[in-house]
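Hi Prof. W.,

I finally got the Aldo/keto reductase prediction working! I wasn't sure whether to trim anything, so I left the full sequence exactly as given:
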Amino acid sequence: MLTKTASPTTITLWNGREIPRLGMGCWAIGGPFFAGDTPLGWGEVDDDESVEGIHRAIALGIRFFDTASNYGAGHSEEVLGRAIGNRDDIIVATKFGFATDPETKQATGAFADEAFIRRSVETSLRRHKRDRLDLLQFHINDFPLEQSDAVFDTLEALRAEGKIDAFGWSTDHPDRAARHAGRKGFVSIQHTMNVFEPVPEMIAVVEQKGLISINRGPLAMGLLTGKFTADKAVGAKDVRGAALEWMVYFKDGRMAPEFAARLDAVRDLLKSGGRTLTQGALAWLWARSPRTFPIPGFRTVAQVEENAGALEKGPLSAAVMAEIDAALGHA
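And this is what came out:
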């Protein structure tokens, strides 16, 4: 489980290792993949730039990389394997549950039976060029609660066999977070969280159960970088242009007006202390709870450097946090 440390920007993991309290999310570096004509990736990528970005992150102290077996139909895992391999000083977290065809780059369904889980683990180990997966996360957000028991029984078995070191669930539902928190080896919940979505119910479960809160979407899919204007649209192969129910920050490939207005309300507050907007968004998460662990995505070395630069400045002050709460109407 998580142990608080003296530094607000380090975290002690389930294995006793203390690392910077920031990981890198690797969805975008997987490149394009699709469900029919609907894009599920973030557009075209340069693998050499991705590898350089990973190496730069490591040079800056980052020790945690999060991906999934379906990102880029497996390509994200392959890029991480190329860049990191079996280094034992780096934590690699991946996910299972969504199947893809690496040839067609098409999603082929969602599965959670034992045979599928075991095949997925072996495939992830091969792609990552690793002997063991550090953290394996169940990727199906709203999987039925009662049926999830068998899934985590399988993960316990895989841990006992030495295939994985720890496991968790990528879900936005607090009841799912709580369901398996008592299992040995269940250490984390990955969930959406950012300055627009403080998710107090989830944080209450995380803190009560002593879990790690791995924050996906810490930059609201890029909205909190400040690079989008009302007339700037994403590319044709970018998931942010897809008409998906959960795509709230962007509409028709452009930032949603209601979120643009909320960003304007806190922009200067997030940039306090000489931070960039991105760094302020990460600093907000660190100040929100001692158990938060943001994993901003990246596609370039420059993005890695900006993300990692937030560590030097630390969490936002209590006074600034209060002003942000007031501006956004947080309880």
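Residues 1-6 have pLDDT under 50 and may be disordered. Does that look reasonable to you?

Thanks,
D.
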